[in-house]
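Technical note accompanying the year-one report. For the benefit of new consortium partners, we illustrate the data format agreed upon in the data management plan: each record pairs a sequence with a structure-token string. No post-processing was applied to the example shown here.
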Amino acid sequence: MKVTFDKYHGNGNDFIIVDGINNSFNRITQEKIKSLCDRNTGIGSDGFIIIKSNDHCDYEMVYYNSDGKIGSFCGNGARCAAHFALKNKILKKVSKFKAFDGYHFVNVQGNIISISINKVDNFKKIRDDFLIDTGSPHLIKFDQNLEKLNIEDEFMRAQESKLVDGGVNVNFVSKKDKNTYHARTYERGVNAETLSCGTGAVAIALCSKLNYNHEESITHIITRGGKLSVTFNFNENKFFDIFLFGNAEFVYSGNFNL
């Protein structure tokens, strides 16, 4: 079977996206997804997304890491998926979708997509770092020298601590000003540094509140792929009304055999 896909990226975090509403992907395997995501012998991407029908919302987003395994929530992928569904007229509107961690709301304004993030109350400080779950687990390390960082070695060192079953994404952060941070992220499942990470940007924004106790209404995260913005409220040790804003860019369409 020949399958049409779209290649997308959100701040350089790139994805292969397919329509699972009008096509069946029940037979797709972990090895097939891994081979498609391979940057040397396949299409090349950080992840693979299937848009499926859901009786309780506009659609369901099923996300796989580039190793072919089912992934947790992907913020950049979610923004690209919403744009994909509208661009390809799979849906006439999108406002609510289901992902790995539950339901989310989405707003599309051209190429700028905002998505809601479920409330966050699962976080703790570990020495000078923060461990937090924003739909995916993240370790946040502030006050880092991002230019001299040996990011792969630091990522592997964090995995040795076995903080989370299945591994943890590691974010390295340098403060630019009171509400702007530079960041680099090494992602589990991709097993590489990505140009941007949506749930990582959210994690950094929330932990900046914990670390610096600022009163800013919006936080900007600058990655190697571009800028993401995050808004939230914080009360009684819980984060809520969280939104992630950023671009979603169509790259090209193609076909593969399944």
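Partners are asked to follow this layout when depositing records. Residues 149 and 245 are 27 Å apart (CA to CA).
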